[in-house]
Amino acid sequence: GIAHEINNPLAVMLGYARLMQRSPDATVADDARRIAAEAERCSAIVQGLLDLARPTQLNLGAVDLGEVVRDVADALVTSGTSIVLEVAPAPTVTGDAKKLRQIVTNLLRNAAEAAPGEPITIHFETRAKADVMHVTDRGPGIAPGVDLFEPFQTSKPSGTGLGLAVSRALARAHAGDLTFTANPTTFSLTLPKREAA
Questions:
Q1: pLDDT tens-digit profile of 75-127?
Q2: H or E segment to which residue 136 belongs
Q3: Model pLDDT, residue 120
Q4: Three-class SS of residue 152?
Q5: pLDDT value of position 4
């Protein structure tokens, strides 16, 4: 309820800031751009809080994780990031395609930002009762004791610190999990193995 109440004045502020950006006065236009940027950041925080707070409803179906990775990777490759797929073929899992895409997008974007221009390695692992996707980057690693799944925990100047918390909540809604190891930084998305039709 609070998040929704905050969203309304934020939308008004953002609307006026965008109007002010059209000002012929360069100083006013620049100030308005800064106001708009901060209002958008607040809006992203509110959206993240809503995603964490509301129960996750899944639209389940067969999802080819490899196809999801390729779609998300296509957008990142234009920024100089390459994706290296290793070993086992990508599994088909039972899940909500949009929610799983949200998780993969967050993981790949974080990996790209941790080590700009460096390749991201994706490795699929098949276990007895689960399929696992490991995403490894070549960044500086994670300091000991840091819990990246804690809401608002971020090392990025423009990050909200909610992306990984939301991603783990979505993974758990799929009866799976999202974990990480620190050096090298590897995030592992574990999902239940799809039952044979």
A1: 776 666 667 766 567 888 999 998 899 899 889 988 888 888 788 889 898 88
A2: strand 130-136
A3: 86
A4: coil
A5: 72
Pairing of strands 120-126, 83-87: parallel
Output the six-digit token pair for 127: 């276990």
Token pair in block for residue 180: 């990480």
Segment 146-173 shows an average pLDDT of: 75
Which long-range contacts (C-beta less than 8 Å, at least 24 apart) are formed by 172-177? 173/56, 173/58, 173/99, 174/58, 174/95, 174/96, 174/99, 174/100, 176/130
CA distance 72 to 127: 25
| Residue 165 φ then ψ, to 5° | -65, -45
- In angstroms, the CA 29 to CA 22 distance is 6
H or E element at residue 95: strand 92-96
Question: In the structure encoding, which two tokens stand for residue 118, read together?
Answer: 């460096």
Rounded to whole angstroms, the Cα distance separating 128 from 195 reads: 12
Single out the residue of 67, 76, 190 nearest to residue 127, CA to CA: 190
Using CA atoms, how far apart are residues 125 and 133, in angstroms rounded to an integer?
6
Q: Is 53 helix (H, G, I), strand (E, B) or coil?
A: helix
Largest Cα separation within the chain, whole Å, is 65
9-57 per-position pLDDT tens digit: 888 888 889 899 898 999 998 998 889 888 887 877 777 777 766 667 7
Single pTM value for the model: 0.72
DSSP-assigned beta bridge partners for residue 135? 122, 187
Residue entry with tokens 């190891």: 181
